[in-house]
Amino acid sequence: MTIGQQIMRELKNQPLTTSQLSEKTGIEEPKIRTTINRLKEKGLIEETGLFIDRYKIYRITNKILNVTLLLKMIMKIEGVLAVALINSQGIPISSILPEGSDDTKVAAMTAAVLSLSERACREYKKGSLNIVFIQGDKGKLLVVDCGSDFFLTLSLDATISKEQLFTEHFKTIDLIRYTIADLSPD
Predict the structure, then answer these.
(1) Which of 17-21, 69-73, 160-164, 176-180 is least confident?
(2) Secondary structure of the chain: what % helix, strand, coil (to 5)?
(3) Burial 30-61, CB ≥16 within 10 A → b, else e
(4) Which of 31, 39, 49, 34 is nearest to 11 (CA)?
(5) Which residues, listed in sequence order, are joined to residue 82 by a DSSP beta bridge?
(6) pTM surpassing 0.70?
(7) Cβ contacts of residue 118 below 8 Å, gap of 6+?
(8) Could you say which of 39, 79, 111, 133 is the most buried, measured as most Cβ atoms within 10 Å of its Cβ?
(9) β partners of residue 94
(10) What is the pLDDT, as a whole number, of residue 1?
(11) Which domains does the chain have, with CATH numbers?
């Protein structure tokens, strides 16, 4: 797990200072400050405006919290078993997964699928990667580009057909992916 992933995981629970993050993760404060600055540039975390001693308190941005509502909309689509939003660095932003699932593993697998798929698009001169669709005998996986910063990954059961997914449900997925793209930092 990267430092960024550890910070995001800790901040999902409560706002913390760099000192508190260091205590919880065992990572040196300078590394945490550097990573926080990168996460702030990406619009993933923000300062609360409050301090403990001389330390600023950081939290996940309100924009990211609104994403959870969008993911809940996707979960209402018949046949969707799980959904996760991953940033372009492979950090899990928000997810709705079955109990016992690990969002870090989902993010890592999504990043691996994306890396290979992007390379295939380049090698075969197919342009920019838009969608990755994987079909197994027990279900399907769909990874969708949501702008330059995010990817949406969906786990689907075997009952949903490819035609049903792309004709009936993709309008909802498209609407949500463009909404998420609008949340991306400029």
Answers:
(1) 176-180
(2) 50, 25, 25
(3) eebeebbeebeebbbbbeeeeeeeeeebbbbb
(4) 39
(5) 155
(6) no
(7) 129
(8) 39
(9) 85
(10) 67
(11) 3-60 (1.10.10.10), 63-183 (3.30.450.30)
pLDDT tens digits, residue range 58-103? 988 766 656 777 888 889 888 999 999 998 788 888 899 999 999 8
**126: which 2 tokens?**
């197919």
Q: Give pLDDT, residue 186.
A: 46
How confident is the model over 20-57, as pLDDT tens digits?
A: 999 999 999 999 999 999 888 877 788 988 888 888 99
| DSSP of 77-105 | STTEEEEEEEETTS-EEEEE--TT--HHH
Strands (E), the chain: 16-17, 45-52, 55-60, 80-87, 92-96, 131-136, 139-145, 150-157
Token pair belonging to 112: 């691996």
Amino acid at 25: T
Alpha carbons within 13 A on the beta-carbon side of 176: 25
Structure tokens at 54: 């001389």
